[in-house]
Structures are given as structure tokens and as C-alpha cells.
Hints:
- The protein is α/β, with parallel strands linked by helices.
- It has helices at residues 2-113, 115-134, 139-144, 155-166, 190-194, 209-215, 251-256, 273-280, 297-303, 332-340, 358-369, and strands at residues 175-178, 199-202, 220-222, 225-226, 233-239, 246-247, 262-271, 288-291, 313-317, 343-348, 352-357.
- It has 2 domains: 45-137; 139-225 and 271-369, Rossmann fold (3-Layer(aba) Sandwich), CATH 3.40.50.
- The protein has 11 helices and 11 strands.
- The protein has a 7-stranded mixed β-sheet with strand order 3-2-1-8-9-11-10, sandwiched between helices.
- α9 links the parallel β8 (288-291) and β9.
- The protein is elongated, with a radius of gyration of 41 Å.
- It starts with a helix and ends with a helix.
Amino acid sequence: MKLYTRLLRFFLRDLYARTETARSESADNAKALQETKNQVISFQESSALQIATLQEQMLFLQEQNKKFQEELKFLQLQLKNIDTGHHERTERCEKRLDCLEHYRSETEKRMQSDDITTLELSHRIELTEQVLQENNISGNALKLFDKKTYSQAGEDAIILYACAMLGIPFQECNYLDLGANKPIEMSNTYFFYQQGARGVLLEANPLLIPELEQKRSGDMILNQAVTGKSDETMIFHVLNLDGLSKIGDISDILAKNPDAKLMQSIPIKTITVNDIIKNYFQEKAPVILNLDIEGLELEILQSINFEQYRPLFFIIEMIPYSKNLSVGIKNQELLNFMHSKNYLEYAFTGINSIFIDIIKYQKLIAGKED
């Protein structure tokens, strides 16, 4: 009986020990399983965060790629325009060289055959100049009675009269023509170009540049858009009606003018009036500033440093485009702005107002009286 009891106790202790071992191993396994679960959850959360980050980076790269493609298209268009313009200018230069060579050859022949006539003409000019000096008559005064106007409504004739009265030689009437359009027809500056004056013609429409370069070769021709800021790139809309081409929104123009059609839209660099005067007039304001920029006149005027640059004359379009005769219409906002800068309206042609710097005018009058 004792032996049996001992054996039973031995087996019970062994069973208890094994049970405790199994319990311990089960707890360890449960702990290990929980740690594994925690690691899996942590890995899932980390993976989800990485996936979200990668998705954001992918969206950013897609957006960057879209911008890059747009810039690439823009640069390709610019390159195409540059190549086209370079080719066309090269052809024009070659044609002009041929014409100049022919003209030079013909001129030499005429000079060789007309030496006597040339001498007589020179003698007559000397006699005429002598008579003018003896009678105190200036060349400006003669041109007042024998002149041709090229402006749309006689603006150049009004200014040449004012210059003659103020004693300003026509050949000294340099100019800045903003929105030059045509080189001769309806030009407010071509008369002074004929008298020997020179200036800067700015025209944003590239289709008009070749003729300007050909017929106004003595002037500086800028194919840019004048705005309140320099070195920006803007889209210029070329319409079939030259005077209506512009940067910015053209929906209102197309709505009001059924005949107007959009021909092309091109990127163009901008420049300010201040930078033009600084770069091309040695920081001295021109005598005449002609401003005909569809709808942007006030913005451009507000960008000018009037403390530093004061042209003697401004020619500014004061009425909106219309096929009909405009009567009793004038941009009062432009008129008030010019008055605030000490410019008085000297004349109004029904289309353009001619303003004169009252400060310079008074000095010129005082000088003549002295």
C-alpha cells in the first residue's frame, strides 16, 4: 500500500510539473503570438503610411510632369516662332541688300552724269539758306505752309505747328511710338521721321514688324508688348483688324465687332515705358510719346515715372473703337490723370488728345521772351 501511495504521489507530482511546464509554454506562446500580432499591426500601419506618402509623391510628380509638358510646348512654340522669324528676316535682309546694291549702282551712274546739275543745286541751296538767314526765316516756318499729314486726324500737323511756335527744330523731335501699327499710313510720327528725327517704334503684332523694319529702318523697332512690368511673358491675340489686336481678354471685342476674327495667339515679352526710355533714350524723355494700346492706356500711363521722364507731348487715343463717327465721347479718366501730372490738353482731334507738359511749355515760352 505504501509503495502504491508513493508511486501515485510520484505520478501526481510529475503530472503537476508537466502541467506547469505546459502552462508556462502556453503563456510564452501567447505572449509571442501577441508580440507577432503587434508587429504585424505596426507593419501594416507603417506600410499604409508609406503607401499614402508614395501616392502623394506620385501626384506631385504627375503635376510637375504636367507643368513640364506645358513649358515644353511653350518653348517649342517660341522656338518655332524664332526660327520662322529668323528665316523671314534673313530673306528680307538679302532682298534689301540686293535693292540697296542696285540703288547704289544707279545712284553712282546718276551722280556721274549729273555733276553739273548737282553743283547748281548746291549753289541754289546755299543762296536759299543765305536768304533765309537774312530774313530770319526758319525751315520750320516754311514747312508750316507746305506740309503733308500722315496721321489719322492731323495729329502730326498740330504738333509740328506747336513745335514751330516753340522754336523746336523738327529733326530734334524724337519720339516713342507705342502701338506703331503701320510705318506711314495713319502714323503720328512719320512726318518727323521724314525731317530727320528718329525714335523707337513698339509693335506687339509680329505680322506688322517686317514693313516697319523696311520703311522705318532708321528707327529702333521693338516687337514687344508695353505693360506695367518688364520681362514677363504674356499671350498676344492677333486679330484680322490690326487696331484691335491686344493682350488679355478679347471676348468683349469679338462680341462687339462681328467682323473681328482671331488669327493667332502668341507668347510675347513685355517691357515698361520707363525701361524703354532708360535703354534707348539715354534716360532722357523723348519729345513726343504716342500711345495707342487698345484699352491699356491708363495702366501704362500709371506705370510711368513722371518725376524722372516727362515727354513734351503726349498723343493718346481717347475714344473706343467704332465704325461710326464718335461725337461727344472722351475718356474722362485719362483726361483727369494727365491733368494730375501737370499736362494740359492742347488739342482734341475727335480721336486723340494731344497733351503738353505745362512746366516745360512755360520754360520754353519764358526762354523765347528772354
